[in-house]
Amino acid sequence: MTQYALLIHSRDVDWSLPEHAAETAEYDRFGRDHGADIRGGAALHPTSTATTVRVTGARGGDVVTTDGPYAETKEALMGFYLVEAADLDTALKIAQDCPGAWDGAIEVRPVLHMGD
Amino acid sequence: MLASLVRQLGDWSLAQDAVQEASLAALETWPARGMPDEPRAWLIATARRKAVDMLRRERARGDKERDGVALVDQRRRDEPAEGDPSGLPAGLEDDLLRLLFTCCHPSLAPEARLALALRTLCQLSVAQVAAVLLTTETAMARRLGRTRQKITAARIPYRVPAAEELPERLGAVCGVVHATYTAGHAPLVGDALVDVDLCAEAVRLARLLVATFPDEPAPTSVLALLLLTEARRPARADADGEVVLLPDQDRGRWDSALVVEGAALLATSLRRSGGVADPYQLQAAVALEHDRAPSYAATDWAEIVRLYDLLVSVAPSPAASLARAVALAERDGPEAGLAALDGLGGSHDARVRGVRGELLARTGRRAEAAQAVEPRADDELTAPERRFRERRVRAWRALAGEGAGGQEQPGQPPRMSARS
Description:
The structure holds 2 protein chains of 2 kinds. Chain A contains 2 helices and 6 strands; from the N terminus they run βαββββαβ. Chain A is an alpha+beta fold. Chain A has one domain. By secondary structure, chain B is mostly helical. Chain B is built from 18 helices and no strands. In chain B, helix 6 crosses helix 7 (137-153). The longest helix of chain B has 22 residues, at 12-33. The radius of gyration of chain B is 25 Å and the shape is globular. Chains A and B meet through helix 2 and strand 6 of A and loops of B. Chain A: Belongs to the YciI family.
């Protein structure tokens, strides 16, 4: 079995607001349907709450902190899931069921296990 | 053989390395000890042993365990089955299909799919794949390496998709089979006019697909197109490998059995799709019009124009537009063809210039024709095509030079291609 990250790119909104209740209900259902495969994940606040940090050079170098997400894109990184699947096709099927893919996009990337 | 090993080992790089080691071992031992009775079985067994050795060495170094995958599959499935379309043992056909579908996985970039298929299915060398896809060997090696890495890291499964996934997956597979045939039929570099092995490989794969998925429309359409095109291959080059154009081909050398088979497949696939034609069926129908015609002059050009009009609307491409311009010229005269060419971008392309030259010559503008057709250093042309164009240029310039004060006589250019 392999772990995959499902990186959800969708509308940059506050998902906790009542006007998005229908969509969050879909996310709840996704969580129930694929509970056995999901190993972790989180929804994120909108990108207006994001701060980006860069350090020049090495540890202890100059720190540059800016307001906003890493990239200003039409669809923003709004959350992620960690799932376990036998192969990519299985992971892709799980991603298809995730509401983030329905009017946004989900990047599916294998997790790199370091030093196992 | 590579396909069997990939299946057994589940690891492409390992399988490739093992095949190489086994081949080297064969080269070392066979001359001295003589060839074994079953050379293929020997090679596979040796490659498996080499693979196990390599894995043992890796594990001894403390590398990651390959979780969940059976390392060595001892099952032997080498008994041939009766009536195989490809003449291969059933186990090997299975492996070919798995390899083909894996190469064409939607998560792989389209260029990567064709490159991987040519390398692993058609067993072209990296240099040959690079040549076919017009890139350098280094770049191709890198691309293939990245693709294999992706298959391993993302765990793209090595299998034939389930029935409900087939329709969309078959599209990509048929595309690669068609592209393989085109690479063999109309290569852009090299000394041969047609790479016969690639054409044969593509036909073999198409037959396998039709045999495996008899009710799916795409494989039948592609096989029809391939056969109807392949039927004319024997006449496309003369005994010296020089170009013979369609108007000059000896139609007696065309393979009528392939025409009959291709026509039947096209009819079947059209019945299934209720007469609505996909791009493969449209191209197959054009090929059939050529195959049916008793002569170039008697070809139903009006029908061919109609088919290309459809093709250009459902699957526009420079090649389709160019072919349409040729058909237009045959139906309505060279000026109509030239007008259609003017609408095409990429007029510096060697093939577009070739058609423009032929049409200009027909209107009597031979000096312009020669200039259009003259091969340039960076043109993507095979050696026989280059030589053909150079002959054309010489002939037209000679004719253009005749007549007082450079006056040209309109009319048909002389046929300079060799007769077969």
